[in-house]
Amino acid sequence: MSLSDSGFMLLPRSLGSQLPGGIAFLPVLDELPPIELRLSWERAAPPPVTALVRTARRLARREGWLAA
User: Fold this and answer.
1) Considering the entire predicted model, what is its pTM?
2) Helical residues (DSSP H) of the chain, grouped into ranges
3) 6-62 pLDDT, tens per residue?
4) Which domain of life is it from (predicted)?
5) 3-state class of 61 per DSSP?
6) Where does 2-68 have alpha helices with state H?
7) Closest by Cα among 39, 35, 11, 29 to 65
8) Phi then psi dihedrals of residue 6, to 5 deg
């Protein structure tokens, strides 16, 4: 799996345990679709990806989407 071309991916939760080293992930929870997704990115990501991740984390906290 390579994130170097796109910067991040939305993946099914089942792939979370198969991610290579250096890849970070953030659970994405929603009622639709009925599968749990994860936002994944390289830890050494470029600034636009870092900004997306920061915004996603902030929104997830505010909306209560992060698992306790």
Assistant:
1) 0.46
2) 47-63
3) 577 777 777 777 888 888 887 777 666 566 667 788 888 888 888 888 898 888 888
4) Bacteria
5) helix
6) 47-63
7) 29
8) -105, -20
